[in-house]
Amino acid sequence: MVGQKENPDMEDRLVVERYTLLERVTHLVHLLAMLILLVTGLKIYLGWDFMDFDTARALHMIAVPFFLVANWILVPYNLFSCPEMGCSIKGRFDHFIESYIFGVKDAKRLKAIILNFFGRGNYPAFTVYDVKEGHYRTKLHPMFKLLIIIESTAIFFIAVTGVVLYNLYWVLLGLPVAQWIISIAGYFAPYLSVSALGLIRMIHLAAAYWFLLELILHVGILEFDPKVWKYHKAIFWSGKEDLSESHFVRVIEENDNKEF
């Protein structure tokens, strides 16, 4: 992720790798799998007639492993990958916490974003690149860092409940996993006056609706701005970002000691 001058005649252009090839592939697999799961899942639930039930269910089950591998294997690998070669375990965790966990500085950015909405102050930089260390301090909108927490929870619940909806008697390595899930749901179901299976269906559907809402927030609102189209190009194609384009960007120079 080392910055480089894109053109010798344009010394002020600092082009860096924002997303690796694996990160871009992970994002694409996650997106396509999620869309297939949403469309086929809602067809199964609402009875849309654009495809038959068996086809929808087959596509739904094909998309599941891609979705889980992207989110439970590739995403963690990317998150804990270090921007420098030979990075220590502590360095990897520090990089993860600094880059992806919502913290005090993100809260300040979010407050500034809200104030900007009401015409008070400038929109803060949420892309912060450290020239000396040669990596991003953070590259996520603070709202996305909050969405990550909710999304991770939704993925867990949609996977757990999906096991039961796939097979009420699903067994893994001789362990009656599906029946265990039903038993746990049975403890909470009476509080909502539903059966254990009814509660499992409710949670699965609620998680699906959350992904619809997140899709609207992620694409339709937070990124429906021509100034952030450069990020779409980076995540879907080039992987690179020109930090000289100043919208939402802060570059920390070697002698810059200010808090970012």
UniProtKB/TrEMBL annotation:
Its EC number is 1.12.98.3. Keywords: Membrane, Oxidoreductase, Transmembrane, Transmembrane helix. One of its GO terms (molecular function) is Methanosarcina-phenazine hydrogenase activity. It comes from the Archaea. One of its GO terms (biological process) is respiratory electron transport chain. GO terms for cellular component: membrane. It is an enzyme of class 1 (oxidoreductase). The chain crosses the membrane at residues 28-46, 58-80, 146-171, 177-200, 207-224. This is Methanophenazine hydrogenase cytochrome b subunit. The lineage of its organism: Archaea, Methanobacteriati, Methanobacteriota, Stenosarchaea group, Methanomicrobia.
